[in-house]
Amino acid sequence: MVQIKEFRIVMPMSMEEYEIGLSYTIMKMEQQNTNSKEGVEVLQQVPFEDEKLGKGQFTSKLYHLQSKIPSWMKGFASSSALTVHEDSWCAFPKSRTVIKCPLFSKCSLTIDTVNRPDNGCSENAHNLNSEQLAAREVEIIDIASISRDYWSKMISAPNVDLTAFKSQKTERGPLLKGWMDSCHPVMTTYKLVIMDAPIWGLGERLEDFIIAGERALFLACHRLCFAWIDEWYGMTVDQIREMERQTDMLLKKTLKKPGKAGSKHEGKRKTLKDEIAVVGSCT
């Protein structure tokens, strides 16, 4: 059974600020969660152009996070088989991410993102058809909230109380009850998660587990994006791109992986059109 879940994450910042802030946050979280044994390995970062998304940046990564995998899942295979491969095509304000795992080769997980300058009121940001809308479940994530589920504990992100936090540079915050209806500037990232695990006896449990993991990651990442606003506020896209290059090299060095920053895979890289042909377009 295919599950379709749309997460709407309202952020107290402009679209331009969010593009910078999210990139900065992802890089810092990757550095904090990478050591000599496990973490994030950047395989490729190159520009791309697509008829649907336009121009943007393609990124391919491997996630070696075996210690965070639950024991019931480790019983199926060796830790190396549980390495997660992520391909992402980011052309702000839209992006598509495809996540795969060798052990569950029949499974597919795609995340389509649309960012809009509103407070989560767009009812069909992804232009879904009637059948998809009927199957879709919507959840608004409040970044001022705190989750204590399995994945939230495994992500182990710094705990910041956003109901008491106030930015020194922007004077935004604290995020008190009703803040999503009153803050300015404001924008929302609409993340459509489509998970299909056609595995008899395990599929539904796996789908629920993975979607819960994505939700926890969305919450942690966006909480920190605002909590770290004084670190990235005022940076430019060019500065972010240079930081990405430096982070790529740092992660390789930390994981003791050979190769240069931005190095390409052997053979031809898959285009976004290739991936859509494989997993099917959700919009």
UniProtKB/TrEMBL annotation:
GO terms for cellular component: cell periphery; cytoplasm; nucleus. SUPFAM superfamilies: Bet v1-like. GO terms for molecular function: phosphatidylinositol transfer activity. InterPro entries: PI_transfer, PI_transfer_N, START-like_dom_sf. Residues 3-247 form the Phosphatidylinositol transfer protein N-terminal domain. It is found in: Nucleus. It comes from the Eukaryota. Pfam families: IP_trans. This is Phosphatidylinositol transfer protein N-terminal domain-containing protein.
